[in-house]
Amino acid sequence: MPLPHRSDATFANPVIPGFHPDPSVCRVGDDYYLACSSFEYFPGVPLFHSRDLVHWTQIGNVLDRPSQLRLPKDTPASGGIYAPTLRHHDGRFWLIVTNVSGDGNLIVTATDPAGPWSDPVWAPGVPGIDPDLAWDEDGTCWCTVAGVAQVRLDPSTGRTYGTPHPLWSGGPGAKAPEAPHLYRVGDHWYLLIAEGGTERCHGVSIARGPSPTGPFEPCPDNPILTHRGTDHPIQNTGHADLVQGPDGSWWMVLLGVRPGGGTPGWHVLGRETYLAPVTWVDGWPVVGEVPLEAPAPDWPLSPAPVEERRDDFDLAGLRPCWISPRDRPAEHYGTKERPGWLTLRARGGSLDEPDVVFAGRRQQHPRCRARTVVDAASGRGGLAVRLDERHHYEIEASATDVRVIARVGSLRTVVASRPLPDGPVTVLRVEAGEPPAPHDARTGPDALTFGVEAPDGTFTALATLDGRYLSTEVAGGFTGRVLGLYAAEGTVHFDWFDYEPLAS
Ligand code: 6LW
C-alpha cells in the first residue's frame, strides 16, 4: 500500500517495535529494506522488507553463520554488532557494520537481501564505528564513520586509501557526533548525523556541501529532529537514515524509546525503529511529527498485526526473529531430537552465565503475555525475561518443582517455588502488565507476573516483580528485553511458545 503523498501523514509508530535500533534503510523499485543493530545476539543484523515503510516483515538476518559473525564467550552484553548501513549500488546490496567484539568493520553483499549474504571482507583501515557507504558520480566509494571522519574505500576488498580526514562534528558542544549517512540530493551532498548521545538528549543534525568530501555547511535549523526536553511519549530520538519513495516523497527512519512509569522513566523494550515524514524547504530537510498512534484502529496505516504469535517448533528450526546470546551451536539447540519440540541442552549454566543456552524473541509490546509448554524431566530450565546476564527474571521447572528466580545486579534470589503441578504437561506463563496501584512518581514501567497454567487454563501466580529492574535505565547498555526459553541443566524440551500482545 503506497504512503499518502503528504508530509503530515498519520500512521502508527513504532514501525518496528522492540529492540531494533540504529535503522538503516534503502529502496529498490517499490521495495524498501531495513537493517538494525543486534549486539551480542546471534544471528546478527535483522533484515526487514516493506512496501509502505509502515508494515515491515523480517525476511532474514544478514549475519547468520559463524563465518560472518563470531561472538565469543567473552563478548560483553551490548558488545558485538553495532549500527549497520544498508545500501543498493550497482545491482547489489551492500552492508557495512562493526563487530566491536571481533575484527572491527566488515562488508557483506547480496543480490537477494533475504540471503544468502556473502562472507565478509574486513576493513581494518576504517577508523571507527557507525560506518556509512556512499558512491559519488565517478563510482568512488566513501566510508564515513562516527567522529565524524571519512576515508576512501574499495568495498569489494575492504582496502582503504589515504588518511581518514575529519568532516564535520555537529553543533558546538554536542557530545557523540555519530551515525553519519551521506546522500546526494539535487546539487548538494548532505551529511546527516546523530549527536547528543543515544539517551534523552539524542538528536539529528545535517550539513551540506558541494562534494561528498565537503566542505560542509551546517543547517541553520539544527537539530532537525530531537525530543530532548519535551514530554513527547517517544524519547531519545536520533540515529536516523533518509529514504525517498518511488512517488518522490521523503521519509526518515530513526530510533526512539518509550519510557514508562514515574520519574525518571524506564524503557524496557530497548531502542525501537520509528518513521517520520520529511519535506524539503530551501534545500534543507524538515522532519515532521513522529506520531505514536494512528488516528483510528481501522486506519490503513495502523500497526501491523503480529503475524505469527505461536511458534510450534517444526523441523525447519527457529524463525529469523529468534536470537541467542553469542553463538548457537546446533548440538545445544535443536528441533529434530523430539520432532515438533525445541530441545535445549545446557552447557555453561544458568542465565547468569555468558554461555547460557537461551533462545528468545524480543518483547515488542509494553503489555504482553508469553507462555510455553515445558518438559524438564531430564533437566532444569524454563521461560525467561532477559535484559543481560545480570538482569533477568525467570520461571524455571525441574523434575520436581517450579520456581521464580530474580537476578538484579549482583543480587540473585529464588522468589517463590511450588511443587510441579499434576498433569501431563506444564505450562509456564509470564505477563507484563500494569504496575500495582497506587501510581505515583516512583511507580515502575510495568509489573511482571510469573506463574503456571492448569490444563483448563486456570492461572496460578507465583510472583509479581517490578519491571524497572529489567530496563535500560537500570541495566545500562544498548539492547532491550528478550522473552525466551533456556536450559540451565541437562536437557529441556519445549512444545510451543506463544507471544500475545495485550491492550495497554
Ligand atoms: C551506535 C551509535 C548509537 O553505534 O548507539 O544511537 C550505538 N547511537 O550510533 C550502538 O547502537
Account of the 3D structure:
It is a single chain. This protein has 2 domains: 24-287, Glycosyl hydrolase domain, family 43 (Tachylectin-2, Chain A, 5 Propeller), CATH 2.115.10; 306-501, Sandwich (Jelly Rolls). The chain is built from 1 helix and 35 strands. The protein has one helix at residues 472-475; strands at residues 24-28, 31-35, 41-42, 44-50, 57-63, 81-89, 92-99, 104-110, 121-122, 132-135, 141-145, 149-154, 159-166, 178-185, 188-195, 203-209, 217-218, 225-226, 235-244, 250-257, 272-281, 284-287, 310-311, 324-325, 333-334, 342-345, 357-362, 368-388, 391-397, 401-408, 411-419, 426-433, 447-453, 459-466, 482-501. Strands 23, 25, 26, 27, 28, 29, 30, 31, 32, 33, 34 and 35 form a 12-stranded antiparallel sheet that branches. Strands 14, 15, 16, 17 and 18 form a 5-stranded antiparallel sheet that branches. (Z)-L-Arabinonhydroximo-1,4-lactone (6LW) binds at residues 21-22, 37, 82-83, 129-130, 178-179, 194, 198, 238-239, 255, 478.
Supply the key terms.
single chain; mainly beta; Tachylectin-2, Chain A; Jelly Rolls; 5-stranded antiparallel beta sheet; 1 helix; 35 strands; 1% helix
- Structural class category: mainly beta
- The CATH topology of the largest domain corresponds to Tachylectin-2, Chain A
The count of β-strands is 35
Unreliable spans are 1-8
Major sheet: 12 strands, antiparallel
Topology:
Blueprint: E1 24-28, E2 31-35, E3 41-42, E4 44-50, E5 57-63, E6 81-89, E7 92-99, E8 104-110, E9 121-122, E10 132-135, E11 141-145, E12 149-154, E13 159-166, E14 178-185, E15 188-195, E16 203-209, E17 217-218, E18 225-226, E19 235-244, E20 250-257, E21 272-281, E22 284-287, E23 310-311, E24 324-325, E25 333-334, E26 342-345, E27 357-362, E28 368-388, E29 391-397, E30 401-408, E31 411-419, E32 426-433, E33 447-453, E34 459-466, H1 472-475, E35 482-501
This protein binds (Z)-L-Arabinonhydroximo-1,4-lactone.
